[in-house]
Amino acid sequence: MKFTLSWLKEHLDTTASLDAITEALTDLGLEVEGVTDPASRLKSFTIAKVIEAVQHPDADRLRVCKVMTDEGEKQIVCGAPNARAGITVVLAKPGDYVPGLDVTLSVGKIRGVESHGMMASERELELSDEHNGIIELSSGEVGQKFVDWLALNRPEAVDPVIEIKITPNRPDALGVHGVARDLAARGLGVLKPIADVSVPGTFPSPIKVVIAPEVAEKAPFFSGRLIRSVENGPSPEWLQKRLTAIGLRPINTLVDITNFFTFDLNRPLHVFDAAKVKGDLHVRPSAPGEELLALDGKTYAFAPGTMIIADDQGPESIAGIMGGEHSGCSDETTDVFLESAYWDPIAIATVGRALKVNSDARYRFERGADPAFTQKGLELATQMILDLCGGEPSEVVTAGAIPDTTRSYALDPARVISLVGMEIPEAEQRRTLEALGFRLEGDQAFVPSWRPDVLGSADLVEEVARIASLTKLQGQPLPRPQAGVPQPVLTPLQRRESAARRLAASLGYNECVTYSFIDQPAAALFGGGADAVRIENPISSEMTHMRPDLLPGLLAAAARNQARGFMDLALFECGPVFAGGEPGEQDLHLTAILVGNTTPRDPYASRRKVDIYDAKADAEAVLAEIGAPAKAQINRKLAAWWHPGRAGNVALGPNALATFGEIHPKVVRHFGIKGTVVAFTVRIAAVPLPKVRTPSRPALALSGLQAVERDFAFVVDPQVEALTLVNAAAGADKALIERVTVFDQFTGLEGGKKSIAITARLQPKDKTLTDAEIEAVSAKIVDKVSKATGGVLRG
Amino acid sequence: MSDQSDLISLRQSYLDRISGAADADTLEQVRLAALGKKGEISGMMKELGRMTPEERQTRGAELNRLRDEVDTALRARKQGLEDAALDARLKDEWLDVTLPGRPRPQGSIHPVSQVTEEVTAIFADMGFRVAEGPQIESDWFNFDALNIPPEHPARQEHDTFFMARAEGDLRPPHVLRTHTSPVQIRAMQATGAPIRVIAPGRVYRMDMDQTHAPMFHQVEGLALGRDISMANLKWTLEEFCRAFFELDEVELRFRASHFPFTEPSAEVDIRCSWEGGKLTLGQGNSWLEILGSGMVHPKVLAAGGIDPDQWQGFAFGMGIDRIAMLKYGIPDLRAFFESDLRWLRHYGFAAGDVPSVAGGLSR
């Protein structure tokens, strides 16, 4: 919303400076987004008088002038044809910045003659495009500031334009009068009342207005009158300047008046050329197939039932939003029908959104115009039309009734003080509300008709606090909920999330944050992409479905990084995945991928391709970090995007805590990644929390007896799993065998067989083992392994 | 009877042989010759038994002295020979210490995670718990419960993403939460008042340009009690900004504004300077908007199941990505979500760099 300072002063009697006004506006919640103050560029210029002008000795077109200035007589060389003795001019001195030239002046020599400044043209001061000569003023004293002269003689040239942002709850501030009311309440001047005008009609309006019962709730009140024998044409200069200053294009007097009322008093109006209207004006739902060429030059096809204004020929206006081209007013208009109506905000918003049509009228009606001002606005506009265009007004025709918005809420001054935390005396609270137009009766505050946003006592608090100034609010310490050391605030799951993330980073992965929505084909590759997780209005075709997994985002990131030449990648993300479209169908994953080599090349030949055992080790490290039990099973119940033979789950029964392995080559190809990708996903929330939380550890049981390690190598079939072998060996004597680990594997033996070497650590509890006892356990191990795997001890 | 002179020359001869021994073997032979079982000095000591007590006393003391002296010299020489051998070996054991160490991958934490933990650390110290809520949210939690009825103009300003509805499902469509504010309602419903929570997380708006991404991060704050005021809100935010931006002084400006879920509402600006095209917080003559806040609207309290006549308090919401950009000088929001390795390494944080109130937030 834009207005000029002089326009504001039409409504506010004030001596406050521009700075004071803009600061107050921002503080009041009418945030100043910009101020254009022409005077700020013209501050340094003063008025001077030419005493003498003689021909320059060396240049035909230049004159050497003696100029009387506030600093005495100066010599100035001037090329303007009108430079002559006796004229009053605008002086720019050395050191002054001339905006139209983008130059800071200095004392110069022009063809050998010294010149102390310049006399400016209109264009040089950016006052107009005039550049045929220097400015000649009809009045003004030597030494007077030029901006002061302008303020007196050409105020519009130094009229600052102020642009403010209006929050959606403040329709009353969408007119200059409402802005002035806020400033007056703050104490920055006195609000000038709106004149009470009533123009009697001299004849019945030939055009009647009718509201169809189907739209009675959307169009509570419609009024208008005909004014005949008007003379339309360009509006007067003051009105044109007012509109152009805020970026509106003057059209003709009748249209300019409606625009003026929109911005001056927040009262959108419409003018129909009465000669083009056939029959009466009906506010009614549109019939199938109806459309309208509107004043913005676009044709709007109405969905059946859209609220429109129509005459006997069909639609003439998108009610409350925009008039039609056909019945618009032109210079030829002689009879005008002036409309002032009150529309239901929701109805206007709905139509405006459906038709995708924006206008200043829609903007105001959908936020809420002052219903009680509908008729007063009609009378004031009638008066202005009569003043500017002449003519003769009919009686007013109306349909419907102004809705009664009378309501009141209790003002509790103590509660205001408690909520805001500021000592605002009761009398000041009451004064504030009255200044904003509230009527107080006892503790009840009656809300003015222009404040549809005030709907409870809390809104009264806001009004009082706003006018009292939140900028002045002093902070007061918020005591801790209890004295002493603060309690921990994270849930166990939140702690795990952070721990998992930091562990992944310490393992060498770079954390990514990728979008929660991905494209449908990618989502489908990971078991998602169903309609339940589809976004109805996606911002792009790449972001249509909520991600079922973190892998697609990371794989796409890997492909982008490969394209930039980074071939060895370790990336992870910790974030939400979506199993369905209902709130809560959301899980927390940590997923990491490895691509390329483990490390860059080095002199020690450490470099090798990443493989699934890297991913497995990292998955287990993350699981351990977040407290997963060490004894988990490995299974191969895998989703389709994993390599069927090179991936596994770390599981507790049916509960897969993590998956690790190689990504299916088809998936890798889909993302355009070179090489294989290994990955792991940890389902953080699937890891069970300890049943009892205690910082205490179980006692450490140390045996003083020597442990014994025995190595075994078994030859087994190629697809025998090491874990089967290890579990069999460990089961040979659960009391004695503390640990079994695989320390070697050798494939490609005769018949495709492989050798797996394990070491078993025997920890005696009560006495040192004899050789015979060790031999007995060893034999049991060989026997168990052989039964479980068919493996034989390697000779 | 022997006199001392034989011992003097004997001593000298062994000391010479010891110092002349060039290796451990030669030295061992000298030791055996002098102090071995059949050694010369050992032999002389055996003869002491045949002497008179007086002779034995004198001769014994002299021989003991001689034996100790030779023994000490032998040990010293042995040590010397060993040291020389080690020195010679170490001279050959030279490695190029300028070769690089074995490479270790360098992981990193994303600024969004880091800053979320910083914010959490500060508010934890003031007694705020961390609350969470779903990102696909019902329109009731995202809007209605926050005093934004269906036709409220604020709904349009939220640029909401809607979830598709199956045919025949007549419920209003769910939304991707447009702010973290619905977590306020869920937290109130879960625990009632008094309550202090923050709720960091992803939010979504249909907006994409130089300074907007369709997904970003917010942190919501909520504090309810019997007499928590807007002045407490201002103090809390001042304390937060001072701690978060690691400044000695901050100045905040509250400006009246409008949010449907708070009343009164204020936008909060922080004093800053743009001198030389560089943003400096805490000083200067400009103001930079950093967050929105206000006193929780009675209707919002009621939606959370809390009696507005008994409880009052404040709420605020700010952009995590935005304050990360301001604090760490990160220029472009969209780059947060592009996973460019160069960006992740440059703006990321070390795994061990855990922010805490005790240790400081940033290194």
UniProtKB/TrEMBL annotation, chain A:
Keywords: Aminoacyl-tRNA synthetase, ATP-binding, Cytoplasm, Ligase, Magnesium, Metal-binding, Nucleotide-binding, Protein biosynthesis, RNA-binding, tRNA-binding. Residues 703-794 form the FDX-ACB domain. CDD domains: PheRS_beta_core (cd00769), tRNA_bind_bactPheRS (cd02796). Mg(2+) binds at residues 453, 459, 462-463. One of its GO terms (biological process) is phenylalanyl-tRNA aminoacylation. Its EC number is 6.1.1.20. It holds the Pfam family tRNA_bind. It comes from the Bacteria. It is found in: Cytoplasm. It is an enzyme of class 6 (ligase). SUPFAM superfamilies: Anticodon-binding domain of PheRS, Class II aaRS and biotin synthetases, Nucleic acid-binding proteins, PheT/TilS domain, Putative DNA-binding domain. GO terms for molecular function: ATP binding; magnesium ion binding; phenylalanine-tRNA ligase activity; tRNA binding. InterPro entries: aa-tRNA-synth_II/BPL/LPL, B3/B4_tRNA-bd, DNA-bd_dom_put_sf, Fdx_antiC-bd, Fdx_antiC-bd_sf, NA-bd_OB-fold, Phe-tRNA-ligase_IIc_bsu, Phe-tRNA-ligase_IIc_bsu_bact. It catalyses: tRNA(Phe) + L-phenylalanine + ATP = L-phenylalanyl-tRNA(Phe) + AMP + diphosphate + H(+). One of its GO terms (cellular component) is phenylalanine-tRNA ligase complex. Its cofactor is Mg(2+). NCBIfam families: pheT_bact, YtpR. Belongs to the phenylalanyl-tRNA synthetase beta subunit family. Type 1 subfamily. Tetramer of two alpha and two beta subunits. This is Phenylalanine--tRNA ligase beta subunit. It comes from Paracoccus limosus. The gene is pheT.
UniProtKB/TrEMBL annotation, chain B:
Its main location: cytoplasm. Mg(2+) binds at residue 263. It is found in: Cytoplasm. Keywords: Aminoacyl-tRNA synthetase, ATP-binding, Cytoplasm, Ligase, Magnesium, Metal-binding, Nucleotide-binding, Protein biosynthesis. It is an enzyme of class 6 (ligase). GO terms for molecular function: ATP binding; magnesium ion binding; phenylalanine-tRNA ligase activity; tRNA binding. The keyword Magnesium applies. Its EC number is 6.1.1.20. Binds 2 magnesium ions per tetramer. Residues 113-338 form the Aminoacyl-transfer RNA synthetases class-II family profile domain. Its cofactor is Mg(2+). PROSITE patterns: AA_TRNA_LIGASE_II. GO terms for cellular component: cytoplasm. One of its GO terms (biological process) is phenylalanyl-tRNA aminoacylation. It catalyses: tRNA(Phe) + L-phenylalanine + ATP = L-phenylalanyl-tRNA(Phe) + AMP + diphosphate + H(+). Coiled coil: none annotated. NCBIfam families: pheS. Tetramer of two alpha and two beta subunits. Belongs to the class-II aminoacyl-tRNA synthetase family. Phe-tRNA synthetase alpha subunit type 1 subfamily. This is Phenylalanine--tRNA ligase alpha subunit. The gene is pheS.
